[in-house]
Amino acid sequence: MKQIPMLINGEWVGNETNEWLPVFNPSNGQQIAEIVRGNKEHVNAAVAAAQVAYERDEWKKVKPFERGQLLINLANHIRENAEQWSKLECEDVGKPISQARADVEAAARYFEFYGGAADKVMGDTIPIEEGILNATVLEPLGVTVHIIPWNYPLQIISRSVAAAIATGNAVIVKSAEDTPLTAHALSEWFAASNLPKGIFQHVTGIGPDVGGPLASHPNIQHVTFTGSLKTGVSVMKAAAENVVPVTLELGGKSPNIVFADANEERALEGVVRAIIQNAGQTCSAGSRLLIEEGYKEEFLSKLTTKFNELTIGPGSEDYDIGPILNKRQYDQIMKKIEVAKSDGKIISGGEAITIDGYEGGFYIQPTIIDGLEHGHSLAQEEIFGPVLTVFPFKDVEEAIRLANSTDYGLVAGIWTQNIDVAHYAASKVKSGQVFINNYGAAGGIQMPFGGYKKSGIGREKGFVALRNYTQIKNIAVKFSI
Ligand code: ADP
Question: Which residue numbers delimit the Aldehyde dehydrogenase domain (predicted)?
Fold first, then answer.
């Protein structure tokens, strides 16, 4: 069995005295690895090592462009070995291999993008008065913690770790207990690189054992968390005790708003892809279809045809939809589908299926639910599976009202040929990203990503995310002769 140790202070940590936790391949339910069940002592050791590493000249004297070069080397390594990385992610998360390949390319792009940005993080000179030179300097924060969810591990680690290292921090990654493989592969690369020990560390284990102590540790300077709303709130509370800033990405209930004048084929394709990607286990999934009333029956009939054509099966064979992560996730999705059967109407899918030869995996048909009240919990809460809920609207005002009537505000899609309607709706929708006549635009490495309302705090991705990992020092110089 492949054993995955932690990387703490440049050493591999994990031996017979440690407790180990199993890791499964969601496609067939078979165990593929085990991770160390980390604890508070491991967290304390990692934070202490990060503090020392951060302060040492060995890291402080690395020039910004050199930090960038290291990250670009990693990007190149990932690209050169893309198929291996993709297989790892596919096996670990269960996602279709083509989607794993897209994740791997996105990871390479993050390291490349932030590697290129490392020597372009600049402050301002601010006019005060004659005889004073006032400048701001963007300094790293120190020790940054990155708590990672299980659904897009490689991408989500890469986006924040790349930005934090580019700006000169010492990072500690806590990977998700279900999907640690690519985090470990990154650890192996960093351990073999010339990055000083303690600047990249990886701790594994259960959230409350490891993530909690990390978030509440008094000697860290930032937490980046992606995951559930409930855990995000607890991370924020823990960090608040030490006045440590957080960047939170907590999910969504994102609408695709389809007007009757939309380009039908593009809208159909967009709506389908937005909900089936990673079997709907995506925080930015387009999980609500808001459809113009008079167009509803026609659009839904075509959408149902598309749903019925989707293929389901193990990630390695690249069907449209892969397995659900595990039984826990599967049970919570199926429970919601059962509720929909009584409170609404299933117009496509709605059943679990078994795949020959992959009986240990959990597979669910792509499902469309109609007929729910918009206030229903299924319209308000994440389902985190390939399940789309449908609601009609009369006019643009009602579409906007519905779009905005959940606690979340991560992404919105707007499908119309009318430029006035498109821009009007985009200006009124309360979400961190708005896509007009597309959904997701090529991965969006450069686009700020994050949420309004309970979808989170702050933005990841893009140039703006570098600010998460820096603080401003203002230096005023008075001079005279
Ligand atoms: P999910 O319910 O989808 O697994 P979580 O939000 O619980 O999502 O998990 C996301 C990440 O947060 C995982 O790495 C998990 O181990 C970690 N985590 C879980 N509980 C806590 C906690 N109390 N404090 C910090 N991190 C946690």
Answer: 12-475
